[in-house]
Write a structure and sequence with these properties.
The chain has about 180 residues and is an alpha+beta fold. The protein is about 25% helix and about 30% strand. It has a single domain, classed as tt1808, chain A, CATH 3.90.1570.10. Strands 3-4-5-6-7-8 form a 6-stranded mixed β-sheet. The termini are far apart.
């Protein structure tokens, strides 16, 4: 008997959204679409939740009028990906996205504990490919902020690691530095 080749179905964003609208997933199921794969989002530990809230507060202070700091909401980056980053800073206000999710972000932040390797590989490549020019990973294990800039293909040319004694200025909030210690739980 010949071996059968098994292939994984690559979901489009349209198929994913149709599944959601048709009730294809249990209510309250935490999912996201990354490179055509529908992934379960892991439950959040208290440390992770605290990190998300601290980043959100710090970035709301750095990005004022004309920007929306979105916590764990969909971001449409391409036809096969609709991640829900921990934080995404987009141009505009919440009402600008009433009828459709934002298609890009000025800054994306992932707060990482158990997801660190995934955030450094799959998500990093997805964000770089789609031109997110300021991508941060708040590494809870090492208590540092990893800053990725200058996307090129599926990589970033510039990578810096900042500890709690340093400050970071978001690319699109010039002149508004954020102490890394304000982000760390």
């Amino acid at each position: 008997m010949p071996a059968t080749a098994h292939r994984t179905h690559v979901w489009t964003r349209t198929e994913y959204e149709q599944m959601i609208l048709s009730g294809g997933f249990r209510p309250g199921t935490r999912l996201e679409l990354v490179d055509g794969e529908i992934l379960d989002r892991t439950p959040q530990r208290s440390l992770h939740s605290t990190g998300v809230r601290l980043v959100e507060e710090a970035l709301r202070a750095a990005f004022r009028a004309g920007f929306d700091v979105r916590a764990q909401l969909p971001l449409v980056v391409d036809d096969r990906s609709e991640p829900e980053p921990d934080i995404a800073v987009v141009v505009g206000s919440p009402r600008d996205y009433r009828d459709s999710h934002p298609k890009t972000a000025l800054l994306v932040v992932e707060v990482a504990d158990s997801s660190l390797e995934f955030d450094r590989t799959r998500k990093l490549a997805m964000y770089a490919r789609n031109g997110i020019d300021d991508y941060w990973i708040l590494n809870l294990e090492a208590q540092v902020l990893e800053v990725y800039r200058q996307p090129h293909g599926s990589e970033y040319r510039d990578r810096r690691i900042l500890d709690g004694s340093r400050q970071i200025t978001p690319l699109h909030a010039t002149g508004r530095s954020v102490p890394v210690s304000d982000l760390l739980p």
